[in-house]
Amino acid sequence: MVGQKYATLLAGPHLNPVETWWPLATLEWFGRREQSSLTACFAWVKRTFATIATAIAHQSGRPITFLLAAFIVIVWAVTGPIFHYSDTWQLIINTGTTIITFLMVFVIQNTQNRDGAAVQAKLDELIRVSAAQNILIGIEQLTEDEISDIREKCLARAKKAENGAQKKARAGINRTV
Questions:
Q1: pTM for this entry
Q2: Euclidean distance between CA atoms 11 and 9, whole angstroms
Q3: What's the Rg (C-alpha) of the chain?
């Protein structure tokens, strides 16, 4: 049963991110002071990266940024005849776009991960405080097949509720007529 699997997942041990990403932090020869400073360092790096990634993602989505990039490409294209379309001329744009694309993948993914987690937390809270089934909290960690099963059950319940609502609406209309 999907709910039981998720309940088991929730009841499982919750690992410290430091232990997950750097197993050396849990070795016996690491003292508590080193472990806590390492944890603080990782926390600072995560916060700093999140702040920088958010700022870059926000700025890269602005129209002026697009215009600047288009201007750079136009200047590069116009200088082609000046440099006789040399290999160096081509290498400049290829290298620049490759580096920017490579870095932007990580920035965008980080922003997407945080946005998705924030939306999921909000939805989980709405489910928790409403009459919805609490079993739906955290289903994003299930497999695609398990999520599809849950979605099909939800659609069936929605269709059943819709049919019931239509019958009540018709009955109410018939009473007023």
A1: 0.54
A2: 5
A3: 27
Distances in Å between the alpha carbon of 155 and those of 60, 130, 150? 38, 18, 9
- Asked if residue 19 lies in contact with residue 26, where contact means CB atoms within 8 angstroms, the answer is yes
Q: Which helix (H) or strand (E) holds 66?
A: helix 63-78
Please enumerate in sequence order all residues whose Cβ is within 8 A of that of 5, keeping only pairs 6 or more positions apart, or say none. Answer: 142, 146
Q: At what angle do helices 87-129 and 63-78 cross, to 10 degrees?
A: 170
- 20 within 8 A of 152, measured Cβ to Cβ: no
Q: Where are the domains of the chain?
A: 2-142, 143-177
Work out the burial of residue 66: count CB atoms within 10 Å of its CB; fewer than 13 is exposed, 13-18 middle, 19 or more buried: exposed
- Tens of pLDDT, residues 6-51: 334 334 334 344 444 444 444 444 455 566 888 888 888 988 988 8
DSSP type of residue 23: G
With contact defined as beta carbons under 8 Å apart, do 18 and 35 qualify?
Answer: yes
